[in-house]
Amino acid sequence: MEETKFQEKLKDLTFEGNSFNILKQLEVILQSDPLIDEVGFLHPSQFAALNEETYGSANNAQNSENEMSSGNSIFWNRDHKLAISTEVLFPLYAAAKHAFEAAATQYKMLTNLPTNRGKSMDETAADSSQFSADFLENEVMMHSKALLLLSCDSATAWNSRKLVISKKQQSSPSMDELLFSSLILSYAPKSENAWSHRRWVVKTIAGTHPNMEKIVYKESELVEKLAEKSKMNYRAWYHRCWLVSYLTRSQVLEELMKSKKWAELHVADNCCFHYRVQLLLKLLESSISKHGQDVSMNSYPELCRVWKEELDWDKMLIKRYVGREALWGYRRFLSQCWVQHFGIAARDGADLHGDDFNIKDVIHNFMADEIQLLQSCLTIRDDDFED
């Protein structure tokens, strides 16, 4: 029986005391509290203070002693927060790695068996095979979760989770994966494998989930939260830029407004301005005429207003924070798009109304204003900087 074979492969996990028992404790905690949203690794000396803060020093001393005797000096779980003692990290990682590899090997062997065995296959054997598959799927998911908590860049563990999820038709496992990857990102916000897995999950549910807009909104909120904790987090912002393709036009406009305040407080972070570039390109793409590269006249008024607001806003920030490269880089993008798209669209609109229009004059006036802005910033003395 597959379950018996699997258990036999786990017998060697009792090295260095009870490392496998410690792993089982961790997995029980993860199963009993699926909403854990934050994990931390603490020195053993910090657990006493944590327990005292949780249970009190006098009234609940007995509760604290009971928790300590049941292994609370290794794990702490309360209010969907999890703490793991650094003292057990190595044996815990070794046990999780061995358990995962054993489960993954057995699962791959089972899934690679021929599926068409003919009509004469005994129904009992079929039921046993299905039971083994379900059992091994649960083992792979359980052990890979423990392993990834300890080593978030294990690509093999992430890929094994993809393999199991791809064989299930329900959307709930994928939603659970979003919660789990958020847990990983809570302590490793720059984990490339975690972000990549998250994008895979979003693509998996994109065509079937009834409320995709809400998922994209929460993804955007997650990136902003993690970007606040981890400066210059290129992987997080790349994820947010990738989400732009799933945004509706109204969501793009909302994101432009929502991310403006964050950008004002982080003018040195080029990632946020690159995100705004992607939002504006999405707007531009949806407004381009089907017969060319020009902005359609129906979309011109709204898009022109958005671009002028961005130019004025960026100009205000440049004057306030002189010398910030991210602001000037963003302005180059805005200026190039204005000359390429909006000047020509304005000329076409004038032609429709029979008005005289000189595109060269419009571009000349625009460039003159830009040069004036540049010169005004160059005349500021070095001792005037107070940033």
TrEMBL record:
Which cellular components does GO assign to this protein? CAAX-protein geranylgeranyltransferase complex; protein farnesyltransferase complex
Record keywords: Transferase included? yes
Q: Which UniProt keywords apply?
A: Prenyltransferase, Repeat, Transferase
Q: Does the keyword GTP-binding apply?
A: no
- On the tree of life, the source organism's domain of life is Eukaryota
Query: What molecular function does GO assign, one term?
Result: protein farnesyltransferase activity
What does the sequence similarity comment in the record state about its family? Answer: Belongs to the protein prenyltransferase subunit alpha family.
Q: Spell out the PANTHER family in the cross-references.
A: PROTEIN FARNESYLTRANSFERASE ALPHA SUBUNIT/RAB GERANYLGERANYL TRANSFERASE ALPHA SUBUNIT, PROTEIN PRENYLYLTRANSFERASE SUPERFAMILY PROTEIN
Q: This chain belongs to which protein, by name?
A: Uncharacterized protein
Q: What high-level taxonomic lineage is stated for the organism?
A: Eukaryota, Viridiplantae, Streptophyta, Embryophyta, Tracheophyta
